[in-house]
Amino acid sequence: MEGDGTLYFGYGSNLDWGDWKSWCEKKNLRYDGLVEISPCWLPNYSLKFHYFSDGRKGGAADVVETGRGHAVPGVLFRMNDVTLEVMDQKEGTDVEAYERRDVKVILPNGTFVEAMTYCVTQNSREGRFIQPTDAYTNLIQQGLEKRKLPIAELKNAIENFTPSYPIEKIFVYGTLMHGEVRSSTMMECSNGEGKPATTTGSLLNLGDYPGMIAGKEGVIQGEVYQIDQVYLTLQTLDSIEGFYGYDSIHSLYTRTIVRVDTEQGSEWAWTYVYNKEDEREYEVIESGNWLKR
Question: Rounded to an integer, what distance in angstroms lies between the CA atom of residue 138 and that of residue 151?
Answer without folding.
Answer: 11
